[in-house]
Amino acid sequence: MDETFRAILISRGPDKVQRVDRVELTPADLMDGDVDVRVEATTVNYKDGLAITGKSPVVRRWPMIPGVDLAGTVISSRNPDWTAGDRVVLNGWGVGEVHYGAFAGRARLKGEWLVPLPDAFTPSEAMAIGTAGYTAMLSVMALERAGLTPAAGPAIVTGASGGVGSVAVSLLAKLGWHVIASTGRPEEADYLKGLGAAEIVDRRELSEPGKPLAAERWAAGIDAVGSHTLANVLAGTKRGGAIAACGLAQGMDLPVTVAPFILRGVSLLGIDSVMADKALRLEAWRRLALDLDPAHLASLTTKIGFDDIEAAAHRIVEGGVRGRLVVEMG
């Protein structure tokens, strides 16, 4: 008899009402792919929270096993790049949205979606980074490609208490930036300063409609919030600066004018972590192994179990999660 494993399955009936169940599956229930992976650790991202709560149309195939990140060990492979026993990481590629995802004991995936688990990290540590930290690293790399260095001036990070923001603060501080952390949770000031933030800004300074141009306050930034927050960040960016946009916690809209772009030469850098090519992924994970402080990684991580995933998904959407949630699958 085939081995069984636990999974979270989201389904939706003809009435469009969504339900979330914990189920037992076998390998025969999985979707097509050429590499089977034992999921040893995963994480609950904001996108996973949206999928499980149904608050945004993240899931585009029904039923679906959610979970966009995993780290584990190859069980079997029909792909020449991978063999049984290889340790791997997956981020994105529509997993948990259109292809069965990580909230299960086993995943069947396409080999080209996988990258090697860096020797510097355990599966749990890789998931403490996850898509959030990998996206933060892609954002840092984009700022560097734009020619920006700490000598240009401060860098702002919005949504700083969240997963992307926490890792972004740590990375930028380690690389020598003066980091301004924007958060709606003033009680997290000590936590953010522990990650390397030099200043804390209340998100209310940025989250309401603002002026087309504001006083020049930062040369660079990583924004995981969107909407009015991103518009105000752009308005306060110094001449020749750049902002990496990688999230939409406040909204998908961007109520901005062309003023920052044509009067100050500000650049808006879009970060696509889901479909980034393999070379970029490999470089991001190489840099994470070099530039992310291991002590910070531990401080921004909370570990939970498989049975805690659904409750955690609700908390993260409600803004009640600090840093990263790692699911140890056991």
Mean pLDDT: 95
Helicity level: 25-40%
Oligomer kind: single chain
Radius of gyration: 20 Å
Second rung of CATH, namely the architecture of the largest domain: Alpha-Beta Complex
Query: What's the CATH superfamily of the largest domain, by name?
Result: Medium-chain alcohol dehydrogenases, catalytic domain
Broad structural category: alpha/beta
Q: What's the N-to-C terminus distance?
A: 22 Å
The H/E string reads EEEHEEEEHEHEHEEHEHEHHEHE
Can you characterise this structure?
The chain has 330 residues and is of the alpha/beta class. The protein is 28% helix and 26% strand. It contains nine helices and 15 strands. The protein has helices spanning 46-53, 123-145, 163-174, 189-195, 227-235, 259-263, 278-291, 294-299, 309-317, and strands spanning 5-12, 18-25, 35-43, 69-77, 87-91, 106-109, 114-116, 155-157, 179-183, 199-202, 218-223, 237-245, 267-270, 301-305, 324-328. Strands 3, 4, 5, 6, 7, 14 and 15 form a seven-stranded mixed beta sheet that branches. The chain has a six-stranded parallel beta sheet with strand order 10-9-8-11-12-13, sandwiched between helices. Strands 1-2 form a two-stranded antiparallel sheet. Helix 1 crosses helix 9, helix 2 (123-145) crosses helix 3 and helix 2 (123-145) packs across helix 7. The model has no long low-confidence stretch (mean pLDDT 95).
